[in-house]
């Protein structure tokens, strides 16, 4: 189906279903429950899941398949964002222009940066990419201020910007051929409320397409060459293959995905700032990739989702919420637990939780959340088959 | 006819003359061994032949084309394949994938962007890979992770990866180094079979005299970076210059 084998097609269906049903699946707790705070099914967060899922799918083609660790991918997100923003300012707010242009311009930068960085391998490659990203970040705060807006960020100005394609009464928010991406439909079902937003569904559609393309790349001769580079770069040359253009292609593809992510970020929220390119952002991409499972198909989406969830939900849990959840415990214990959790694990201290989770994953399941899932599944399967074995043997006895 | 013609190669590393005026010609369809004591410059010579090192002067012609200054993948595409001292394979990939990659290299050249096609639908590649694995009797191990193969099987796999490209010249760098006697004999048989079945020209760099004398049709003895003699195996045995190189100056 669609050029995929049965298993891959199943995965694609799964991702499509999850993306389509996310507003419902991610809102398991009714509005009235004290746990409703853990719901992630609101548009702003779901957009981030999808967008970072897309960026990570691209990053996975580079890091997961070839093993080349780029520490500068946030720069491509930033370049994509700025490009999309300038499309709004110069032309109009139609994302059908801004997103492809974001990819195009990011692609040009990826060719140049990749061409230089790929002269080296291993840690030197990583450092070179980091250097480029830092350069992009610093420059956008200094000499490039006319283009990037510097500290004040870049946002559209409907009065002074040319916007030559906008027309007389054109929309001044991101839209798709006049269809406002902020349009939403809220469904109230009992105590639950589900929000279906046009912007999120645009991201979800792009996510599914990106995922589909990445499956094709994984199964293609090109994907096989990339895995061969990871396995033994040295042997490639002596097998008559030139690793350079393969690497550059992988780098540019991953750059295009990041540019696409940047363009989508600006399509969801029309402003772009340089903090998107800071090196910790690039670091987060690497962590998401490893947490989810580098080199696996689903890993990027899981990693991006897990970290964005922690970043948004864990970080905003307050002490009073903890009190309300733990109120069944005896008073002394409750206060003690709330003190520990609030000061070390949630709220402003959520990074510690992330760090612990990351450590546990790297130590115990180096293959990331995907491997964790596979292990759990195989444990259940083994148990199942053992039961079957026992039941088969019993009558014989 | 000489398929590989090496003329006047010099290579210095600082004060060390690693290769001094090396002349060598390998005849088509022959097995040519290059032997010599440690430090004779055998590996340096091999690295020049595959494009890893660029000599200070001299020329290397393969089938009428200069090899010097070309990248390893270009030299391979000319038809020179190399087998390494320790087998170099794609350890993370399966045995079958390992042989598919050179098949792609042969069919599509050094680079071809095909990010949409499905590897499993490349019929001709699959057939070729299967045939070569059958030839080296590894078909039963096709789904194995190649890193977990035994040393002898890794060598076999590497050989298969070279053979499937149908090279015109196969360079072997101590193909039996570090092998037990039984594995060594297996490798010798494998090489003999390859040579007889496929008429591939081979240049072998080797330490082990047993291997050299079982395979080679011509032998070049290298000592201190210069070729001493080039002879048939019968004439090499007991050649005074060779004894001298291996055992030191004859005492008077």
UniProtKB/TrEMBL annotation, chain A:
<dbReference type="InterPro" id="IPR001851">
    <property type="entry name" value="ABC_transp_permease"/>
</dbReference>
<feature type="transmembrane region" description="Helical">
    <location>
        <begin position="198"/>
        <end position="218"/>
    </location>
</feature>
<feature type="transmembrane region" description="Helical">
    <location>
        <begin position="70"/>
        <end position="88"/>
    </location>
</feature>
<feature type="transmembrane region" description="Helical">
    <location>
        <begin position="245"/>
        <end position="265"/>
    </location>
</feature>
<feature type="transmembrane region" description="Helical">
    <location>
        <begin position="45"/>
        <end position="63"/>
    </location>
</feature>
<feature type="transmembrane region" description="Helical">
    <location>
        <begin position="352"/>
        <end position="373"/>
    </location>
</feature>
<keyword id="KW-1133">Transmembrane helix</keyword>
<dbReference type="GO" id="GO:0005886">
    <property type="term" value="C:plasma membrane"/>
</dbReference>
<keyword id="KW-0812">Transmembrane</keyword>
<feature type="transmembrane region" description="Helical">
    <location>
        <begin position="285"/>
        <end position="307"/>
    </location>
</feature>
<keyword id="KW-1003">Cell membrane</keyword>
<keyword id="KW-0472">Membrane</keyword>
<dbReference type="Pfam" id="PF02653">
    <property type="entry name" value="BPD_transp_2"/>
</dbReference>
<feature type="transmembrane region" description="Helical">
    <location>
        <begin position="94"/>
        <end position="116"/>
    </location>
</feature>
<protein>
    <submittedName>
        <fullName>Amino acid/amide ABC transporter membrane protein 2, HAAT family</fullName>
    </submittedName>
</protein>
<dbReference type="InterPro" id="IPR043428">
    <property type="entry name" value="LivM-like"/>
</dbReference>
<dbReference type="GO" id="GO:0015658">
    <property type="term" value="F:branched-chain amino acid transmembrane transporter activity"/>
</dbReference>
Automatic annotation (TrEMBL), chain B:
<keyword id="KW-0813">Transport</keyword>
<feature type="domain" description="ABC transporter">
    <location>
        <begin position="4"/>
        <end position="249"/>
    </location>
</feature>
<dbReference type="GO" id="GO:0005886">
    <property type="term" value="C:plasma membrane"/>
</dbReference>
<dbReference type="GO" id="GO:0005524">
    <property type="term" value="F:ATP binding"/>
</dbReference>
<dbReference type="InterPro" id="IPR051120">
    <property type="entry name" value="ABC_AA/LPS_Transport"/>
</dbReference>
<dbReference type="GO" id="GO:0016887">
    <property type="term" value="F:ATP hydrolysis activity"/>
</dbReference>
<dbReference type="InterPro" id="IPR027417">
    <property type="entry name" value="P-loop_NTPase"/>
</dbReference>
<dbReference type="InterPro" id="IPR003593">
    <property type="entry name" value="AAA+_ATPase"/>
</dbReference>
<dbReference type="Pfam" id="PF00005">
    <property type="entry name" value="ABC_tran"/>
</dbReference>
<protein>
    <submittedName>
        <fullName>Amino acid/amide ABC transporter ATP-binding protein 1, HAAT family</fullName>
    </submittedName>
</protein>
<keyword id="KW-0067">ATP-binding</keyword>
<keyword id="KW-0547">Nucleotide-binding</keyword>
<dbReference type="InterPro" id="IPR003439">
    <property type="entry name" value="ABC_transporter-like_ATP-bd"/>
</dbReference>
